[in-house]
Amino acid sequence: MNGCVPESEHAWTVGTAPGIFPSIGHGIALFRRPLEFLKTLPAQGDLVEIRLGPRRAWMVCHPELVHRMLRDTRTFDKGGPQYERLRALMGDGIVTCPHAEHRRQRRLLQPTFRPAGVAAHTDVMAQEAESLCRDWRGGQQVDVSAATLSLTTRMISRLLLSDSLGPAATDEVRHCLAAIVRGLFVRTVVPVDALFRLPTPANRRYRRAVERVPELIDAAVTERRRSAPRDDLLGLLLASAEDGGAPVTDREVRDQLVSLLLTGSESPSMCLASAFSLLAQHPEVERRLHAEVDSVLAGRLPDADDLPRLVYTRSVLTETLRHSPPGWLFTRVTTMETELAGRRLPRGTTVLYSPYLLHHDPASFPEPDRFLPERWLDGEAAAGPHGALIPFAAGNRKCIGDLFSMAEMTVALATVAGRWRLHHPAGRVAPPRPGATLGPRSLTMICTSRADAPGGAAPQAVALAPGAATAASGVEKSRRDGDNGVHHA
């Protein structure tokens, strides 16, 4: 799904988004109603000029052009206002480093994220997910957004640092992350530095959070150097620094840990929170999910061997990533003069793409606003004619943690769904709120034990739709081949 897309002869169209305001450009529209604004752009062209503050930028609206851009990382490098802000926090780690550094860094980190390494952490994932809901009580209101962020922060922390980042520090990282996510988006869409130098409470919170996260990581690394080696990513980095291979500096160790900790906690937590919200709004989908979980797990915690059997569970998550992708807007910058859609782009041009926009294109996904996990039971064909599903990006800078993320989300969703139903309180359900990521920021739901439901904890299993067996076989093969089990998503 994120593989190479054949180039086609296409009469590309180029346009300009209306509604440019002096100094702030399209910042007001992007800040107040970003999703609606994005959906208006394809009508203007396949490549559309927008303004980020006073900066001229281009939004790529066609999936074939997006793949062309993402495959050419030498020309379209990580950059633009989004990554300029992220580098203040993440330095030149795997997420933000320039093209020239990426291959070396990916090779260094890849062993941690290989299928065998991820499978070895499945039991830990299940234990953490079970502890998340162990103390819930029927009828209790649960802050789902906070709960999922706490869960994913603990999971990625254990993968990266074992227990070197204690509970108090992990909780502080979670609070810092919330402040960073709130502040990063507005700094991306209105990149006017003078606004963010003002001593407002929000600016002070953002600056303090950006400073504090590296301090917490440095303290954990210092403590680790005094203890015995451990089999985690920090151990891998420290061993690489000592083995005489490619040099790994203390700064790089910190940059990698900060990058992976923040991206590996925020995006999966948003996806899980969105999934629980969407399930509560679609009871038939929820019923089929419960039926599969009950049939596959029969009340026990999932393990690595269960992942390829949880076909519908993974379809729910894949559809959530399509419907409400946590990573919904990204920037790139041209490193040389180039051409895209027949338009000459000078060196230093900011180019944007939006997975949300591509995922809601009816030409790729019929009825794009509907939540239909069944569309993924047919496998690759559901991805659309141009590989439009890109929740983990594409090309050689595709997310290094996609396999880990899908495994942890599958385990978490199956574990919670095997024990609890979550439903919305009475009233209107708030739509996902875009920030640096897309998802529910303050999602409160009411939990009901499935053991207390009529008919008991395990409703009778129902057969999946035709094609499910084929999908299961494909997922199992992709797992053996080292894929992420979401059709290259």
Low-pLDDT stretches are 1-7, 458-489
Helix content class? 40-55%
Number of helices: 18
Q: In whole angstroms, how far apart are the ends?
A: 6 Å
What is the typical, i.e. mean, pLDDT? 87
Class per helix and strand makeup? alpha+beta
Strand order of the largest sheet: 1-2-3-9-6-4
Features:
single chain, 489 residues, alpha+beta, six-stranded mixed β-sheet, three-stranded antiparallel β-sheet, 18 helices, 48% helix, disordered N terminus, disordered C terminus
Structure report:
This protein is 48% helix and 10% strand. With 489 residues, the chain is of the alpha+beta class. A six-stranded mixed beta sheet has the order 1-2-3-9-6-4. Residues 1-7 and 458-489 have low confidence and may be disordered.
Structural topology:
Blueprint: E1 14-16, H1 27-32, H2 34-40, E2 47-52, E3 55-60, H3 63-71, E4 76-78, H4 81-90, H5 99-109, H6 115-120, H7 122-133, E5 141-143, H8 144-161, H9 167-189, H10 193-196, H11 201-225, H12 233-242, H13 250-281, H14 283-297, H15 311-323, E6 330-334, E7 338-340, E8 343-345, E9 350-353, H16 355-359, H17 402-417, E10 420-423, E11 433-434, E12 438-439, E13 444-449, H18 468-480
Parallel strand pairs: 1-2, 3-9
Antiparallel strand pairs: 2-3, 4-6, 5-13, 6-9, 7-8, 10-13, 11-12
